[in-house]
Structure formats: structure tokens, C-alpha cells
């Protein structure tokens, strides 16, 4: 008994034009503990089959909140007279990249410590302002807005199969995103902002959504197309659907080479929508054995 699966558009008339390239066989049955690998922009991806959810699970990618807190102190400051010790300044880091350069030392402590246990971060750095404390406070107040305005590249949206899929079959969706670094000038200071993707949300175009969450999914080997993954979706109707992916980025920033401090909020960046055409499948059973009778009905090359 031979089984032939055809992918068709929403009309039977054009079935002969689109029969190749969607699905040619049902996916193999997976069992708990099975694993597979794939290759994407992130490198080698490892998949694990979870029988509980009946899906292939890719390791989620996402940042972890910074467990540390930071502070800085001006070096060589005579607190009693509120001016700088010239002899001390002669041996401190040179601050010549701007006006009013002042040497500072940054410190870090785990947030869990109460009171904080401060540890110096070397080497010492510089701030360029008459009032360094004020300029850092202003940067901290503006950094979220600056972060949201950066030209951050959203995740690339992957779809398997694409651009056509079958009604009722699992279509695999995944994101490929990377951390990005930007250098900007804020109030006369060199500020380096690092953006890291942490959450993803799919709108499949038919009213169904997934996320936001840390799971970015990943590409499946072609022989596993049609199997369920955490981010896959099975369409119940035939139509053209626009799929939208939104990536949430978390950021850190450093001032003049100081520590990477967390940006309080996040930024949401949308990928260009992609159109998926969902076709219906036609399954026909034939009694001919194509090996014994190559000209039998349903055999390749036989109209």
C-alpha cells in the first residue's frame, strides 16, 4: 500500500503546481530522551524531546538580572576643604579626554549583603563634569529613553516550512537574535550601552499567540519538520497569515569604561512581519507497489 501526500492551495485545481516541497512524509515518532541538533546563527543547537508536552524543547535564552549594585567615589578629594589634593592627583589616572576630568573609583557589592560589602573595581576611571554626581544622576534618569531610541536590530524570524505550510500540521517558529553594543555621548560622557535579547512573543496571525517568554526556539532538521516544538503552531484554516515577532531587550550601560550597570526597564522591538500561506493536504491510498509496477497509479512520474 503506497501513500501519497499532496500539498495544495485552497483550490484542488492547482494541486499539480504545488505538490513538491511542503511535506513528503509523516515525521518519525519521537520518544522521551531522544535528542537532535541543528545549526543556526547562534551555532549548534541541541534539542531534547519531552514526552510530557509532546514537543521538541530547545534551551531558552535570556539574561539574568544583575545581582550586584554599584557606587563610585571621587579620588583625591579633601572632604574637609572640598577640593582636590594636587599631589594625589599627580599619581592618579589621567583624565584628558574632556574638560573638568576627575578621577573616580567604582565599587561593587552583592545586593544580598546588608550592609553592602564594597569591593573596588580597577582600574580607576574618569568623569568629565564640574559635578560628577549630578551628571551620573542625569544619565541614569535619561538612559531608559536613550535605550528605547537605539537602532537595535530585532530578532530574525525563522519559519519551517516556509513560505507554505499545511493546515493542521505543526509549523515551527523560532527567533535568531544577538546581543548588540552601542557607544553614545551623554552629557559629555562616553556611554556604552549593551542590549541583550531576553523575551520573545509571536503573533501567528490567526488570533493565536505565544509568549512573551524566554524561549526563542530554534531550527529543526528538515526530516523533523512537522513535529511539535514549544514555539510551533498548527493552523486550523487555510489562508494567508501575517506572522509578527516582537523581541524584548534588556540593557546595561557603562560610563567612561566603568562597570556595566543595569538599565531599569526594557525595550520592545518588532521584526518585519512574514506571510505564511496555509494549504490543505490531500491523502490518497493506492494499492500498486511502485517497485513491482513502476507504472502503477500514484507512482512517481505517472499522471
Short description:
With 303 residues, this protein is mainly β.
If you had to describe this structure to a student in words, what would you say it looks like?
The chain has 303 residues and is mostly beta strands. It folds into two domains: 48-64 and 150-279, Sandwich (Immunoglobulin-like), CATH 2.60.40; 68-142, no CATH class. The protein is 8% helix and 46% strand. The chain has two helices and 19 strands. The strands form five sheets. Strands 1, 11, 13, 14, 15, 17, 18 and 19 form an eight-stranded mixed β-sheet that branches. A three-stranded antiparallel β-sheet has the order 2-3-4, with no helix packed on it. A three-stranded antiparallel β-sheet has the order 5-8-9, with no helix packed on it. Strand 3 and strand 4 form a beta hairpin. The two termini are 18 Å apart.
Keywords:
single chain; 303 residues; mainly beta; Immunoglobulin-like; 2 domains; eight-stranded mixed β-sheet; 2 helices; 8% helix; 46% strand; disordered N terminus
Task: Using the 3D structure, state the CATH architecture of the largest domain.
Answer: Sandwich
- The third-level CATH topology of the largest domain is Immunoglobulin-like
- Percentage of residues assigned to helices: under 10%
CATH class of the largest domain: Mainly Beta
Structural class: mainly beta
* Total of domains: 2
Let me know the average pLDDT.
79
Amino acid at each position: 500500500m503506497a501513500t501519497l501526500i499532496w500539498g495544495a492551495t485552497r483550490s484542488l485545481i492547482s494541486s499539480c503546481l504545488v505538490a513538491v516541497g511542503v511535506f513528503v512524509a509523516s515525521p518519525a515518532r519521537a520518544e522521551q530522551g531522544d535528542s537532535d541538533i541543528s545549526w543556526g546563527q547562534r551555532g549548534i543547537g541541541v534539542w531534547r524531546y519531552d514526552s510530557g508536552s509532546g514537543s521538541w524543547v530547545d534551551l531558552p535564552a535570556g539574561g539574568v538580572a544583575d545581582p550586584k549594585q554599584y557606587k563610585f567615589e571621587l579620588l583625591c578629594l579633601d572632604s574637609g576643604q572640598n577640593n582636590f589634593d594636587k599631589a594625589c592627583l599627580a599619581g592618579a589616572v589621567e583624565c584628558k579626554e574632556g574638560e573638568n576630568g576627575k578621577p573616580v573609583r567604582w565599587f561593587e557589592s552583592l545586593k544580598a549583603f546588608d550592609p553592602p560589602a564594597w569591593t573596588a573595581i580597577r582600574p580607576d576611571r574618569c568623569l568629565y563634569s564640574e559635578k560628577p554626581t549630578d551628571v551620573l544622576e542625569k544619565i541614569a534618569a535619561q538612559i531608559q529613553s536613550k535605550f528605547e531610541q537605539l537602532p537595535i536590530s530585532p530578532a530574525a524570524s525563522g519559519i519551517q516550512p516556509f513560505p507554505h505550510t499545511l493546515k493542521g500540521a505543526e509549523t515551527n517558529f523560532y527567533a535568531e537574535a544577538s546581543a548588540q553594543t552601542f557607544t553614545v555621548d551623554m552629557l559629555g560622557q562616553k556611554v556604552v550601552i549593551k542590549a541583550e535579547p531576553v523575551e520573545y512573543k509571536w503573533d501567528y496571525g490567526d488570533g493565536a499567540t505565544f509568549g512573551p517568554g524566554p524561549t526563542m526556539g530554534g531550527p529543526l532538521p528538515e526530516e523533523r519538520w512537522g513535529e511539535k516544538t514549544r514555539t510551533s503552531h498548527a493552523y486550523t484554516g487555510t489562508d494567508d497569515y501575517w506572522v509578527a515577532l516582537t523581541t524584548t531587550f534588556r540593557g546595561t550601560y557603562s560610563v567612561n569604561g566603568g562597570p556595566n550597570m543595569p538599565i531599569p526597564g526594557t525595550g520592545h522591538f518588532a521584526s518585519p512581519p512574514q506571510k505564511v500561506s496555509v494549504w490543505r493536504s490531500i491523502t490518497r491510498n493506492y494499492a500498486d507497489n511502485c517497485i513491482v509496477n513502476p507504472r502503477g497509479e500514484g507512482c512517481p512520474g505517472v499522471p
